[in-house]
Amino acid sequence: MLTRGGCPRNMMSIRDALEALEGKWKLLILFSLANGPKRFKAISKEVEGISDKILSKELKHLELNALITRQVYDTFPPTVEYAITPHGQSLEKVMEELHFWGLAHRKKIMGK
Amino acid sequence: MLTRGGCPRNMMSIRDALEALEGKWKLLILFSLANGPKRFKAISKEVEGISDKILSKELKHLELNALITRQVYDTFPPTVEYAITPHGQSLEKVMEELHFWGLAHRKKIMGK
C-alpha cells in the first residue's frame, strides 16, 4: 500500500484506527487480555509501568470502542473482570505486524 | 498470536514498536511520504489537523528513529525535503493492517 502512495481514503481509515488505539497502552492491555479475562490488578501487573489511574481510563476507552467488556460478578465482595471482544481480537494481525516490526526496530536502533 | 496469548517477549517488541510510533501523527506523516519526498508545507497540508509545532517535533523524532531523512538543498533560498527510509517503508504491513482494521472499526462503531 505504501508504494502505491497515500490516497485520502486510506489515510482516513488509518486515522480512525490510530484514534481508537491512541497512546502506547491500549494495545498492550488488549494483548494482556488475549489469553483470557482478567481482573484489574492482574492487567496492571502484566502491563508494566502503567498507573492505576491511566489503566482505569484506558479500560473505559476500550469498552466504549467495543474492544473489551466489563463484567461484574455478584460475589462477596463483588468481582470485576475484563475480557477482549471479537472486535478486539480482530486486532490480531495489527499486533502481529507490530510485533515483527518491533523486533526489527530494536535490532536496527538499539543494536540488539 | 493473540490466541496464543501474550508472552513477555512479544509484549516487549510491541512496546518497542508503540514507543517508536507513539501518538496519532507519526504513521500518518510516514504515509504521506510514502509516494515520494516532500517539503514541510506539503506534509502539513496532507496530514490534516497537525500544527506546525507538532509536525516539526514529530519529524525530528522520526529522523532520530531512522524512519525518515532530512535533506537540505543548496538552493536560494535553501530547500528542505523529507524522505521515507527503507526502515520507514518496512512499516508497510503495519499500515496495511491498520488500514483494514480502521475500515472495519468505522463500520462497527460509526455504522458507516
UniProtKB/TrEMBL annotation, chains A, B:
Entries under InterPro entries matching the protein: HTH_HxlR, WH-like_DNA-bd_sf, WH_DNA-bd_sf
One annotated GO molecular function is: DNA binding
The protein's matches in Gene3D superfamilies, at most eight in alphabetical order, are given as:
Winged helix-like DNA-binding domain superfamily/Winged helix DNA-binding domain
Which UniProt keywords are present, listed alphabetically?
DNA-binding, Transcription, Transcription regulation
Please report the stretch or stretches of sequence annotated as the HTH hxlR-type domain: 7-110
Q: Which SUPFAM superfamilies match?
A: Winged helix' DNA-binding domain (SSF46785)
The residues the entry assigns to the signal sequence are none
What is the name attached to this protein's record?
Helix-turn-helix transcriptional regulator
Provide the species name: Dawidia soli
